[in-house]
Each structure stands twice: as structure tokens, then as C-alpha cells.
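Standup, Tuesday
Yesterday: got the pipeline producing C-alpha cells again.
Today: sanity-check two examples.
Blockers: none.

Example 1:
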Amino acid sequence: MNLRLYRPTDITVCLSIFDSNVPPISPPEERGDFERFLHEHAAQYAFQVIEVEGQVVACGGLWHCGDGSASLCWGMVERSRHRQGLGRALAVARLHQAEADPSIQRITLSTSQHTQGFYAGLGFQVVRVVADGHGAGIDAVEMERLL
């Protein structure tokens, strides 16, 4: 497993990873937002990918909010690779990145009911749930972890 910064040439595989999770984890209507993010903001959000045997299989970023918090954004693992520890490795790498920055006191994220338990296992607490907040049948579960 190799964790590295996102490159513009990774866009197609990152979109494929998104597509592999539609539905139930990712709502199809967010694909355009993700593609725009990759084109316009991936570098400033320290977007990273995980490669296994030279193939990109996971991606995710860390957004510095500027108010003492940072947010995990667009974290996902290729569906056929779920439950292999890749999501945990990606999340832990981003948490370590945040912990190394003294200006960050808390980490937030918005996930779904399908991955809420995963993030709870990493010390995140639910602060709000919005029914269908990420699309039909996909609740927006807002979580945070204090550092």
C-alpha cells in the first residue's frame, strides 16, 4: 500500500471509485460536485490517494476550515476493496495530518448512516443527522472529533 498526493492524472480512477459506491454510500447527484472538486480544489485540500500494486483504490482529503477545525472530505474506497483496512488507513493518515497542525483543534465530517459506525470507531461523535441530507435514503450524519 502506498499513500501519496493526488495528481490530475488520477481524476478518471477517482471518479470510478465514486461510481463504484453509487448507491448506497454515494448519491449519484454528487458526482458533478466531486468532479469539480478534483479539477479545482484537490491540491488545496491535501487530497491523497492510496495505491495497491500500482492501482489507485482509495482517495480522500482534509480541508482546513480556518476556525480551528478541519474537515475530512471526499473519502472513499473502491467498493470491491471495502473491509480491507484501506479506509481506515486513509482516515488515520488524514487524522495524523490534522494532529500535526497546532491550529486544528477538531475534525468534522459529513457521512451517511452507512459509514457512521466506521467513523465512530475512530472516535467521532454524531452532532446532527439530516434525513435524506445526501440524497433519497442517504442521511447526512454530521460528526466531529476533538483533538
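Example 2:
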Amino acid sequence: MFIDDHRGEYGVEAICRVPPIAPSTYHHHQAVKRDPSRASVRAQRDAGFGPKVKTCWEASGKRYGAVKVWYDLAAEGEDVARCTVVRLMKEMGIQDVIRGKGKKTTYRDPALPCPEDKVNRDFKASAPNVLWVADFTYVRTAVGFVYVALDHCS
């Protein structure tokens, strides 16, 4: 830590003025390093649950996300909040496996010209059945893509 490396030369208070950090915060962290029982209740709980979360995640083949890790911990009798598991996994830099690549549905060819805007963005028709506007989109579902088509006649 920078403060530890330079406190002999500049002093803790002088270094803490720059970020700005209260010198008492630095001294508290030093005391907690020496005696972990001085840490907050949350920090002490996290220190106990952190290794359990990591062990559970590794036991899944590093595939499980926070929810499944939370369920596994609950099955083992651990009383921990789901948001705590999420936070600890984020702090440890571990995450679930992200399955599959996003499917690209449109491939634009920059060599082709853009289609003409034949209505000049004016979507009001002078009479019925004169102007038709349509669009479709892809929606991913559990069984694959569904194509949704929308049209409007003015």
C-alpha cells in the first residue's frame, strides 16, 4: 500500500490529505489487519462466507451464478442473503458461465446504399390504403427465435 511505503518519509496525515482519506480510516484498517476481530460484523461474516461461496462455485465446475450458489449454500444449511452472495462473487471476480454467443440477426453490407426514405419521415397519409409501414424483429425465446411482424396502414 502506498501509505505504508511512504509514511516514514511524509507521515500518514500528510499522505491522507491528498486523496482525501481520514487518517483514522487508515489506522482502523491497520488495526483490523492485526486483529480481525476488530472488523465490522459484516466484514467478519463476509470473511466466513467468502471461502464457502468460492468452494460452492468451484464444485459446480465454475458454472454456477449467484442464485444457484445461494441455493446450494441454503441446502447446506448456510443462512446467507442472496444479495450477499452476489456481492461476494463480484468482489472475488467470479461469475457464472455465459452460454452461447449472441446470435447476430442482421449483417449490414456497407457497400450497398441505404434504402430510400420514400415518405420523408412523414407517416400521415392523405387517404386510406395509401401508405403502408411495416417492420419485423427477432425475439429470442427459450426454444429459439420468434419473428414478430408489425404493420400499419394509413
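Quick observation on example 2: DSSP finds six helices and two strands in the chain. The two ends are 68 Å apart (CA to CA).
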